[in-house]
Amino acid sequence: QLTKGNGVFSGSTPIGTSLNTFHGVRAPNISIAKYLERIYKYTNCSPSCFVVGYVYIDRLLHRHPDSLVVSLNVHRLLVTSVMVASKTMDDEHYNNAFYARVGGVSNAELNRLELELLFLLDFGVMVSSRVFESYCLHLEKEMLVNGTTQKIEKAFISNPVDDVTEISAENTASCSPLLSIGLS
C-alpha cells in the first residue's frame, strides 16, 4: 500500500535524495510479501529481525522525512534492514554475501547499502523491548485489518538500552507514514 501510494505521489513531487543509494533501475519482479518470505526461508533469521528491520525503516523515514519508500527502493531497504537486524539480534547469522544472493543484489552493492543505512540511522540500531513490543502490536493490528489473525512471535532479548536513549520520533504520538499505511 505504501509503495503504491508513494509511487503515485512521487510522480508529482520531488523525492528526497536520502534513499538514492537504495534505488534500482527498475522494480524487482517479486512482491514485497514474497520477497520477505524468501528472506525468511533462506536466511533462518529470527522473526524478531523483521520487526526490528521495520523499526529501522520507520526511523529512517522519521530522520529523512523527504524520502519515500517506492517500488524502486523497497526491496533493497528490506533486505538491508533485515540483515542489519539479524546482526544485532541473532547469535548466528549469515554473511553479507549470502544475504546478497538471497536478496538478488551483488555483495558489493549490499555492503554499500548496509553502510548507507547505518549512516542514515546515525548507527542507531538498538531497539528497546518497549519499542519492539509497540511495533509488534501495530503489525498485529495491520494483519487483522488485512484479514490475517496470526500473532507475531515476540521472542526478544532486550538490548541494554534505556528508554531515554531512544530516538525522539519513537516517543512522539504522531505516527509515521510507514506505520499509518503499512508495508504491504
UniProtKB/TrEMBL annotation:
GO terms for biological process: cell division. It comes from the Eukaryota. GO terms for molecular function: protein kinase binding. Pfam families: Cyclin. Keywords: Cell cycle, Cell division. Belongs to the cyclin family. Cyclin U/P subfamily. This is Cyclin. It comes from Citrus unshiu (Satsuma mandarin).
